[in-house]
Amino acid sequence: MKFPFKNQFLFCIILIELFSCINYKKHETSTDIYKSYANEKGNAFFTLPPGLVSVFLDENQVGNKELKSLLEDTNKLSFLIINNINESKESLTLKDITKRLEAINFQDLVMVNSGNEIVRVKIQREDQAINEMVVLVSNKDAIYCVSFNGKISIDKIVDLNQPQNFVAVSNLNKFKR
Predict the structure, then answer these.
(1) Inter-axis angle of helices 87-103 and 30-38, to 10 degrees?
(2) How many CB atoms lie within 10 A of CB 144?
(3) Is the pTM of this model over 0.90?
(4) H helices within 56-146, ranges in order?
């Protein structure tokens, strides 16, 4: 059976579309991960313009000067707060968030366990640029996840993550509801 050229062309287009639909996989982002937790009772997800946050930072406090500098490279700040969860659920939730971030190519930069809280900083790089930095803080009250999205200078991240400045990235309980 011979197909006219018009039908062959249409058949090829349909096959190409079918294969592209089968191979298409939505790329998950940190925002997708955060939003998946936002629907649970007691959790909050929101975004803020970096400039607004920068206005309220007191440069005289340790680490805030470096945080302000990092915010200059940031296009969007996303926050997830998971309040009042029991210790076993906290551990599982933090492990799940971490696993999902690692599945989308986030790498550990630094982790500090003070005994009262765990602070973990992860970055996602692409072609020698940092696309996003995520700060995860877990304590007895909540899990705080903050994402800094933009083309972020590695030098600014290193400056902020110095031991003397770590209070600026870990002091996220200001957002507690």
Answers:
(1) 150
(2) 24
(3) no
(4) 64-72, 87-103
Q: Is 79 helix (H, G, I), strand (E, B) or coil?
A: strand
The CA distance from 90 to 148, in Å, is 23
For the chain, the domains span: 27-175
Give the bridge partners for 152, in sequence order. Answer: 130
Dist. CA 160–CA 62, nearest whole Å = 10
pLDDT in tens, 40-88: 777 889 998 988 888 878 888 887 888 888 888 999 999 999 886 666 5
Contacts of residue 139, defined as CB under 8 A and 6 or more positions apart, other chains included, come to 116, 117, 118, 173
CA–chain centroid gap for 13, Å, is 38
Tokens of 131: 């696309």
CA 85 to chain centre: 20
CA quadruple 34, 166, 74, 173: dihedral sign: positive
CB proximity list for 111: less than 8 A, separation 6 or greater: 118, 119, 120, 121
